[in-house]
Write a structure and sequence with these properties.
537 residues, alpha/beta, Rossmann fold
């Protein structure tokens, strides 16, 4: 066996020994030994943990596919590529995974160390290329124990990077049966963190950001406190959820808040950010996952888990519920009176179409914020999973993340994605799957307003900047999404009314399909002003 083949097979054995089940591969020459080893291991089956191999032509797309697979499984996923710029294209997904606390194993092929600094083809300094976001092991020899020890660092829910030096010859002389995974010490028994008891009395709300999980809901229900939960919090369920919290934080109720308990990674709402920055509000933090877990606001205490021993005064929650019911009715009436389909109605229709055990992947910018105001009232135990790339809240790779999530959660009763048009165009290559690649059932709803309407709602959307707004921020593109989808052989349907959208969502065709909902962009700022005016300060 030549050294590169032996080394590649040891790396693949280490992945299997570290409980990696899904591997995404981008083609190349220098990573040929890894490619052959991954193919053989995926085909071999047999005893021990197996691998499922996915191939993508674009490294950035492949890395976000791996991210989606890891987000829904909670288990590390690997992405492998060749050397040079291929490695650099993994960076967006790596930094997103690092900030969101998602385990990825990045496996990059490299030239042998003697060629570094010489101008050899496709050679750059790949050791430490991801900085602190993914620690690197520079691999030159097949030390399986060292590989296993390093790869298992993903147990800490962060990316790790194997940079594998591969020398000629790069092709194996024989097929491989996948090898035998060595016995490995069992994980230490999970110990639950001690619960910090919270006093009752201060008027408290629970803020649940991205990936907060059920503990946020459980605390809100135990104490009888309002739950201000983002769509991807994993706990937008139950009867303490306040649908229109973002609007109500501009009301008198917000001035009465004395304490906030924060779970997860809250990033959606400026009103929430202002609340957490108030000097007269005590903030208690439950530590979040990710590389930068420290809060950007002052906290009086940070704990692994918090709880109460009995419910608080019910009048506080009742006041929030009553106000929420009124504002929700007013919001629904306002949207129904609009002559054209609005992005809020699109988000509401998608939310209502998500069945029990369903999966929804939400894009950044406006779609996740629109959904935040329109999420249907979901019951506890429905096992709906709503995810978003909120670690850095970029629009990169969202289609690929959604496809990965759908592939990684085959038990979903239905899989959908809600994205804006710019987000959709940003990951066009995510649609291009080879004929041998598995295609999930996934309905991608694209809210198309021909540009970046989120900027219309921000300071730069003021009329004073109208003469340069489209050039700098609106960036209309005029892309015919039907033709783009046809090029990828993806079914496409365009709708322009709520009944058309609801009909389209009620009858999915299977496979990957795109529903394009056409909405206006020229009135987005005015629409948002009307919505904010529903609640007077």
């Amino acid at each position: 066996m030549n050294p590169s083949t032996e080394l590649a097979r040891s790396v693949v054995t280490a992945l299997r020994g570290a409980a990696v089940r899904e591997v995404v591969l981008a083609p190349g020459s220098r990573n040929a030994p890894l490619s052959f080893a991954l193919y053989d291991a995926a085909r071999a089956g047999g005893p021990g943990p197996g691998l499922r191999l996915h191939t993508r032509i674009d490294e950035r797309t492949g890395a976000f596919l791996a991210l989606g697979l890891a987000k829904v499984s909670g288990r590390a996923t690997a992405v492998a590529c060749t050397s040079g710029t291929a490695v650099a294209n993994l960076l967006p997904a790596v930094v997103e995974a690092a900030h969101a606390g998602v385990p990825l194993v990045v496996v990059t092929a490299d030239r042998p160390a003697r060629l570094r600094g010489t101008g050899a083809n496709q050679t750059t300094d790949q050791v430490g290329i991801f900085g602190d976001f993914a620690p690197t092991l520079d691999v030159a020899s097949a030390d399986l124990e060292e590989l296993l020890t390093f790869v298992r660092r993903h147990d800490h829910r962060r990316p790790v990077h194997l940079n594998v030096q591969l020398d000629d010859p790069l092709l194996p002389e024989d097929a491989w049966d996948g090898g035998e995974v060595p016995a490995w010490a069992a994980n230490a028994m999970l110990t639950l963190p001690p619960i910090h008891g919270l006093d009752l009395g201060p008027r408290t709300v629970v803020v649940a950001g991205d990936d907060a999980g059920p503990p946020a809901r459980q605390l809100a229900e135990s104490a009888g406190w309002p739950l201000l939960a983002e769509p991807s919090s994993g706990c937008r369920t139950g009867d303490t959820v306040i649908r229109t919290y973002r609007l109500l934080l501009g009301s008198d109720l917000a001035h009465r808040i004395e304490r906030v308990v924060v779970f997860g990674h809250p990033t959606l709402s400026r009103p929430v950010a202002r609340l957490l920055a108030r000097e007269d509000v005590e903030v208690v933090s439950v530590r979040a996952r990710g590389t930068w877990a420290d809060r950007p606001f002052a906290v009086v205490g940070e704990h692994e888990a918090v709880g109460v021993d009995r419910p608080d005064d019910a009048a506080w929650l009742d006041a929030w519920r009553d106000a929420d019911a009124k504002v929700s009715r007013d919001l629904d009436r306002l949207l129904a009176a609009e002559p054209d389909l609005t992005p809020y109605e699109v988000a509401g229709a998608v939310s209502r179409a998500l069945p029990r055990r369903g999966l929804l992947v939400v894009g950044a910018s406006n779609p996740v914020r629109d959904l935040d105001l329109m999420v249907a009232p979901y019951e506890v135990g429905g096992r709906r999973k709503v995810i978003a790339n909120r670690g850095l809240a970029g629009i990169d790779g969202t289609t690929s993340t959604a496809i990965g999530a759908a592939l990684g959660r085959p038990q979903s009763s239905r899989a959908m994605a809600l994205v804006g048009d710019v987000t959709f165009l940003h990951d066009t290559t995510g649609l291009f799957l080879g004929p041998r690649e598995e295609r999930p059932d996934l309905t991608i709803v694209v809210v198309n307003d021909d540009g970046g309407s989120i900027f219309a709602t921000l300071e730069q959307g003021d009329a004073a900047y109208a003469d340069r707004f489209d050039t700098l921020f609106g960036t209309p593109h005029g892309v015919d999404l039907a033709s783009l989808c046809a090029a990828a052989r993806v079914p496409h349907l365009r709708v322009s009314s709520l009944p058309e959208l609801e009909q389209a969502l009620s009858s999915p065709n299977g496979g990957i399909e795109v529903v394009e909902a056409r909405v206006r962009r020229d009135n987005r700022r005015e629409l948002d002003e009307k919505i904010r005016a529903l609640v007077l300060p």
